[in-house]
Write a structure and sequence with these properties.
heterotrimer; A mainly alpha; B mainly alpha; C mainly alpha; A: mainly alpha; Four Helix Bundle (Hemerythrin (Met), subunit A); 9 helices; 79% helix; globular; B: mainly alpha
Chain lengths: 257, 222, 42
């Protein structure tokens, strides 16, 4: 069972019981649908603001509306990596199985949002700068972030023993998270020196209030979506990892699974 | 502890010398990869001078990657690595010794050959010097980061390819800084900020790397 | 979309496609490895 005693004082026994996969599984099951509904509502609101409330941009016309999916996706890709590294570190430090499972559950979602950020970035770049890919600092950093995600997933896929896969992935995620700021700044530097101060998606001169609102709501929508999806995915991981434990077998016998 | 460190460095370098064809192959790979680019892109001297620093750096990076899996694989195969894990000397010290010998045997030759390749791309003497210096300052971090990946992938099938996938994004800052240093020299500016950053990054990886590598080896042996 | 339709719809369509694809993959029953009563789960 969970090694409760030394950590109980830190975390508080009421929450700490959820560190066990057996107790977290039903909790995730009840929470996920709420987040799903929340994300649907927020996406609806966000898309409404993005397409019907926010005004047309003076310079970029309607093409700028891609920002309402591009920026939230880019934010999510970075936040998810941080979350992944957080759970990875927790798992390495406290040897908790569930932390490793959370990190593994987060990775595909993070990679997905990185792909969305890259795709929408390219589709934004074509009408505005004339090319599908202009080696903008942000996009290049996103590309490297995608490689970090894929490397994490490849490493975990290559290791059969789930405990070793968790811990090896965790170390890799920590090495990655330490390097991300370094990668970001060196790419920024590389970009400014090679291209001059020309292309930058971050330069949105004067943002109307509604544009910011649109991005915020869409970001929250993505948050809620990721919560739902990751909780769903971690439940599947728990079932596979804990398939030999009593509570899983009971669920299978009851025909619930 | 110092005695063990020196003994391990000596042992690894002796073993590397016995397998010196492997190292020679990596150096040959470095030379050949660099020659591929003019063949692929064209030999216009202006163009070559532009791509030269990048091509040589990428070649060095790829060549370094080739020799990385071997760093721990053979010791893992004959269980010497397991003995190192159980030894009284801290694993990070032993690991540092191994990485040091890897750097001396696999990367230092690259540092010396790079200026010759740089000449093929029409780089001037100052640029060649900075090229060699940037490689000398940058390759320690390449060895250390690569060693982390090598330790994480111990005993896995396809470990060589996996190591490459894992380290390439992490190598980018070093690659960028190294190339910027040479390009700065070519444009007449000072390469100092980039060289200092390379040195700082290498020092940082020397400080944290051995611990990470030792942890990774521990994970593989749990 | 003022002539930018391809890009705007292309972006949102792909994003929606990817998000839905993620949901589809998640909703598939995993290929359960056979239960091993003798396996020692640490």
């Amino acid at each position: 069972m969970s090694s409760a005693t030394p950590n109980q004082a830190l975390i508080g026994s009421r929450w700490f019981k959820y560190a066990s996969p057996a107790t977290f599984y039903p909790l995730a099951g009840t929470l996920a649908p709420w987040f799903a509904v929340l994300s649907l509502l927020l996406f609806g609101l966000g898309l409404y603001i993005s397409f019907f409330v926010a005004p047309t941009d003076a310079q970029q016309g309607e093409a700028y509306r891609i920002i309402f999916i591009h920026v939230p996706a880019a934010w999510m890709s970075m936040v998810i990596y941080l979350a992944m590294a957080f759970w990875a570190g927790l798992g390495l430090a406290f040897h908790t199985r569930l932390s490793g499972m959370m990190a593994s559950a987060l990775a595909p979602s993070g990679a997905l949002f990185t792909v969305i950020a890259l795709w929408t970035g390219a589709f934004w770049g074509k009408p505005t700068w004339g090319a599908w890919w202009v080696w903008d600092a942000r996009l290049t950093s996103e590309l490297l972030l995608l490689f970090l995600y894929l490397g994490f997933m490849a490493l975990q896929a290559a290791i059969e023993d789930p405990r070793r896969a968790d811990r090896a992935g965790a170390l890799l995620a920590l090495v990655g998270v330490v390097n991300i700021p370094i990668i970001y700044f060196s790419v920024q530097w590389w970009n400014t020196l090679h291209q001059g101060a020309s292309v930058s998606f971050t330069r949105a001169p004067s943002m109307a209030m509604t544009m910011l609102e649109g991005m915020m709501v869409m970001s929250l929508a993505c948050w809620a979506y990721v919560f739902a999806v990751v909780l769903w995915r971690v439940r599947k991981i728990i079932l596979i990892r804990e398939r030999n434990s009593d509570w899983v077998r009971q669920l299978q016998q009851k025909g619930v699974l | 502890m110092l005695k063990v460190f020196k003994a391990l460095v000596k042992r690894d370098m002796t073993l590397a010398w016995r397998r010196r064809t492997d190292l020679l192959n990596a150096v040959l790979f470095f030379v050949m990869v660099s020659s591929l680019f003019p063949l692929a892109i064209g030999a216009d001297p202006k163009l070559l001078r532009l791509i030269g620093p990048g091509v040589v750096w990428v070649g060095a990076l790829l060549s370094c990657q080739l020799t990385l899996p071997r760093l721990f694989a053979s010791d893992h195969a004959d269980q010497t690595l397991e003995a190192m894990v159980l030894a009284p000397t801290p694993l990070s010290v032993l690991v540092l010794a191994k990485v040091l010998s890897h750097w001396l045997c696999a990367n230092m030759p690259l540092v010396f050959i790079a200026p010759v390749l740089g000449m093929q791309f029409g780089l001037g003497p100052e640029a060649l010097g900075v090229l060699a210096l940037s490689l000398a300052l940058g390759t320690p971090s390449l060895s250390l980061i690569g060693a982390i990946a090598g330790a994480l992938t111990l005993g896995l099938r396809g470990a060589g390819m996996l190591v490459a996938l894992l380290v390439l994004p992490l190598y980018c800052p070093v690659l960028i800084m190294g190339c910027l240093a040479v390009e700065a020299t070519v444009s007449g500016l000072s390469p100092e900020p980039y060289l200092l950053l390379l040195a700082a990054f290498s020092l940082a990886t020397v400080a944290i790397g051995p611990w990470a590598i030792a942890t990774a080896i521990g994970i593989a042996y749990e | 979309m003022g002539g930018y339709g391809l890009y705007v719809w292309g972006s949102y369509a792909m994003s929606a496609l990817l998000l839905v694809a993620e949901l589809v993959v998640l909703s598939q029953k995993p290929h359960q490895p056979p239960m091993d009563p003798l396996e020692d789960e640490s």
